Amino acid sequence: MWPACETLHFLGMSLMFGVLMIVNLRLLGFLRGNVVRLGAPAAAFGLIGLRHHFITGMFFLRRGVGAVTRRTWAFHYKVVLLMPRGA
Question: Which residues have a Cβ under 8 Å from the Cβ of 66 and sit 6 or more positions away?
Fold first, then answer.
């Protein structure tokens, strides 16, 4: 179960970053072609990626909350930085 969740977690993160990369390149002036028509489907893929990333992240947190929160201080910063993203 754990490797499958890690795979979904990585795929969700890849979908989110891929969609954000397309949007950022469009805002910077690159990809001036027909990328505008990809807006709604790309956003849907980004939201699917966010959902998978969030669900599997909660699974990881639930299974190993003590090991994650006690061992590293970076986890707390990660959660604080992710809160505005989900709101």
Answer: none
Residue type, 79: V
How many other CB atoms sit within 10 Å of the CB of residue 80? 9
Q: Half-sphere exposure of 24 toward its Cβ, with a 13 Å CA cutoff? A: 6
65: tokens are: 């909350």
Q: Where are the alpha helices (DSSP H) in 1-87?
A: 2-27, 39-63, 65-71, 74-86
Nearest to 51 by CA among 62, 43, 40: 43
Angle between helices 2-27 and 39-63 (to 10 degrees): 140
Residue 43 contacts residue 86 (beta carbons within 8 Å): no
Mean pLDDT of the chain: 78
pLDDT in tens, 5-25: 888 889 988 988 888 888 788
Rounded Cα–Cα distance for residues 41 and 34 (Å)? 13
